[in-house]
């Protein structure tokens, strides 16, 4: 015979606790599975604006066309504002934006290495004598230098972004004024407007299929005309620092020193050191959970064109009181946003080097990101532990919760920047589309690898450069972690 538990006999505390734990775990798994499904989805609002997927035929036709007629400065010469008889100082002149800013204007180019986080070093660079034949010309400064730290959000590790992006910008503004500059255009970032995504919403919201809050966001300038947000209302330290830098530049606007800012959409691409195309090409296997994610991208040439448009407005001393001066403008490529899977398909179809994606589940990466952030900050709070525990290095160190706010659907618009100057806007028109810009970059990549497609060359992206700067600063004790 089998003894049955009387119906009126209560379960033991141990069995009750075990049952509660099992129920909780089952509900948690259901919640996480459903949340993962929602993170792999695309809201209806985004489906209405995303560009049609690129086909193999479109990619091959564009490749063949641009291989015969590559994009060069002469390709869009008629779209460049008239050349001005001026001197130019460009910070970050070797970068994605600074380089294209130089090409349409420069006849003679000099290079000065300087650490803009140092006021003295910045002043020395700006004080270098000019050749006598041009020293009398008016001076334009394009400030494009910055460090990109994509996912750190804690004030404990804000030091690098503050030193370069905030204090560095103040140093450049001060040095430019003393050097006699009357036009100053700075590159900031459309990520300034991104607010942290709320991943952990209520279970009933998830079960209703509504998903995380702010899972899609518009990239615009409206936040600039509102009071500055608190630090934790930005998605990461990078965006918070660029917002503060932007205010420094725009508040400096005056009749003697006309200023403005360009916010490139997330993210900028255009050569092998970019994080979007070049960073993906550098991996034969690309782990990703963002194939479905929709983003607005912008080529470095288009961003440079926006800087030149802005300069053409600000050379007029009366422009200091114009609607354009002392404010930012968001710019994107002149086409609807695309999905990351379009980029991946382009690389798989056109690149001579091997490329394939390794799909990951977003909710797993989210959970892992909290562990990495906790561990990283543990070593920051307790430096003695760093002598006993290893630091996380490589790309894994950037897998932190802040990253998921820029791995959501982000749509920018040229609606404001593209309006005519007569209407108080920038008159910006991009000179190449995302399709053309990305195909052109692959053409150049293939030319660089045609003799050894299996040996992928290594290039330093802006994120890796920021890591290198952080290591050097930490070694020198130059950047405070507090």
Automatic annotation (TrEMBL):
Pfam families assigned: 3Beta_HSD
Gene3D superfamilies given in the database record: NAD(P)-binding Rossmann-like Domain
GO biological process, one term: steroid biosynthetic process
GO molecular function terms noted in the UniProt entry: oxidoreductase activity, acting on the CH-OH group of donors, NAD or NADP as acceptor
Swiss-Prot/TrEMBL keywords: Membrane, Oxidoreductase, Transmembrane, Transmembrane helix
SUPFAM superfamilies found in the cross-reference section: NAD(P)-binding Rossmann-fold domains
Residues passing through the membrane, by range: 16-33
Domain 3-beta hydroxysteroid dehydrogenase/isomerase: 229-347
InterPro entries on file: 3Beta_OHSteriod_DH/Estase, Lipid_A_modif_metabolic_enz, NAD(P)-bd_dom_sf
Highest taxon in the source lineage: Eukaryota
Family: Belongs to the 3-beta-HSD family.
UniProt name for this protein: Dehydrogenase-like protein
UniProt organism field: Chaetomium thermophilum (strain DSM 1495 / CBS 144.50 / IMI 039719)
Organism lineage string: Eukaryota, Fungi, Dikarya, Ascomycota, Pezizomycotina
């Amino acid at each position: 015979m089998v003894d049955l538990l009387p119906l009126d006999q209560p379960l033991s505390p141990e069995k009750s606790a075990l049952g509660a734990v099992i129920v909780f775990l089952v509900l948690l798994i259901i919640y996480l599975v459903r949340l993962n499904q929602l993170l792999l989805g695309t809201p209806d609002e985004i489906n209405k604006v995303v560009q049609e997927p690129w086909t193999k035929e479109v990619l091959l036709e564009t490749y063949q066309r641009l291989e015969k007629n590559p994009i060069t400065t002469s390709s869009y010469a008629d779209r460049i504002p008239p050349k001005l008889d001026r001197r130019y100082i460009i910070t970050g002149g070797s970068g994605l934006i600074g380089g294209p800013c130089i090409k349409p204007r420069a006849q003679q180019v000099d290079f000065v290495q300087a650490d803009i986080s140092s006021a003295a070093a910045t002043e020395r660079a700006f004080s270098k004598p000019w050749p006598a034949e041009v020293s009398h010309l008016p001076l334009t400064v394009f400030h494009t230098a910055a460090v990109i730290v994509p996912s750190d959000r804690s004030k404990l590790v804000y030091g690098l972004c503050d030193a370069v992006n905030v204090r560095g910008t103040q140093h450049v503004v001060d040095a430019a004024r003393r050097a006699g500059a009357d036009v100053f255009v700075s590159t900031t970032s459309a990520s300034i407007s991104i607010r942290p995504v709320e991943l952990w919403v209520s279970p009933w919201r998830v079960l209703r299929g509504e998903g995380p809050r702010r899972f899609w966001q518009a990239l615009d300038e409206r936040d600039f005309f509102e009071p500055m947000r608190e630090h934790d209302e930005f998605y990461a330290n990078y965006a918070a620092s660029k917002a503060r830098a932007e205010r420094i530049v725009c508040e400096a606007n005056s009749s003697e020193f006309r200023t403005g800012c360009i916010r490139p959409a997330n993210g900028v691409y255009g050569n092998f050191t970019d994080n979007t195309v070049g960073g993906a090409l550098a991996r034969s296997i690309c782990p990703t959970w963002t194939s479905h994610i929709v983003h607005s991208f912008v080529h470095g040439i288009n961003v440079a064109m926006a800087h030149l448009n802005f300069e053409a407005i600000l050379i007029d001393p009366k422009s200091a009181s114009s609607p354009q001066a002392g404010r930012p403008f968001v710019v994107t490529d002149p086409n609807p946003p695309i999905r990351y899977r379009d980029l991946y398909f382009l690389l798989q179809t056109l690149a001579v080097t091997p490329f394939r994606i390794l799909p990951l589940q977003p909710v797993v990466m989210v959970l892992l990101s909290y562990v990495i952030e906790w561990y990283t900050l543990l070593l920051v709070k307790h430096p003695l532990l760093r002598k006993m525990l290893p630091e996380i290095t490589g790309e894994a160190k950037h897998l932190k919760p802040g990253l998921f706010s820029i791995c959501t659907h982000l749509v920018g618009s040229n609606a404001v920047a593209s309006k005519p100057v007569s209407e108080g806007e920038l008159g910006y028109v991009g000179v190449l589309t995302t399709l053309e810009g990305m195909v052109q970059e692959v053409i150049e990549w293939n030319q660089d690898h045609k003799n050894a497609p299996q040996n992928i060359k290594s290039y330093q992206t802006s994120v890796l450069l920021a890591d290198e700067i952080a290591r050097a600063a930490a070694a020198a004790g130059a950047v405070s972690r507090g």
